[in-house]
């Protein structure tokens, strides 16, 4: 069985965050959503739980980081192509996100860009030709 990942993010405005994540291609899972949290699905194995600050506080005794001023995590999603990297990043910008808060990465066999969501959480979108990357690093093709 594949392992699942649920990234939990505190958000200041749940409706705004829902709209943002839908605009970049995630779909809402109503079964795990209510007025305090929304489950946004990227794939069969990757979901993002958007939690109001009050809801997020139920899971941790720590202060909630202000992601606009503090880096608390960098989240990276794979993409199927260089074009898919640009497409998702451009959609994030059109939906109100900050595009390319860090430099673009282009190594030929690997290409990546990033964006910030409305709460300042940084997402990296990365495409990689695994065989070319293995060759560039001096090894043969590997299983990914």
Radius of gyration: 16 Å
Number of strands: 9
Shape: globular
The average pLDDT value, as a whole number, equals 93
Describe the structure.
This protein has 144 residues and is an alpha+beta fold. The protein has 4 helices and 9 strands, in the order βαβββαβαββββα. The strands form 2 sheets. Strands 5, 6, 7, 8 and 9 form a 5-stranded mixed sheet that branches. The chain has a 4-stranded mixed sheet with strand order 1-4-3-2. β7 and β8 form a beta hairpin. The mean pLDDT is 93.
Please supply descriptive tags for the structure shown above.
4-stranded mixed beta sheet; 5-stranded mixed beta sheet; alpha+beta; 144 residues; 9 strands
SSE layout and pairings?
Layout lengths: L4 E7 L2 H10 L3 E3 L7 E5 L4 E7 H5 L16 E5 L3 H13 L3 E2 L5 E2 L3 E7 L5 E7 L1 H7 L8
Summarize the structure in short.
With 144 residues, this protein is of the alpha+beta class.
């Amino acid at each position: 069985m594949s392992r699942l990942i649920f990234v939990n993010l505190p958000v200041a405005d749940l409706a705004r965050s829902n709209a943002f994540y839908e605009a970049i291609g995630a779909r809402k899972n109503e079964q795990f959503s209510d007025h305090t949290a929304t489950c946004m699905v990227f794939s069969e194995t990757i979901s993002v739980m958007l939690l109001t600050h009050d809801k997020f506080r139920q899971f941790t005794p720590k202060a909630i980081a202000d992601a606009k001023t503090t880096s608390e995590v960098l989240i990276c999603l794979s993409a199927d192509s260089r074009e898919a990297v640009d497409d998702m990043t451009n959609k994030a910008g059109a939906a109100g996100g900050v595009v390319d808060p860090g430099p673009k990465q282009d190594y030929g066999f690997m290409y990546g860009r990033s964006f910030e969501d409305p709460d300042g959480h940084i997402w990296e979108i990365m495409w990689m030709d695994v065989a070319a990357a293995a060759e560039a690093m001096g090894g043969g093709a590997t299983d990914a």
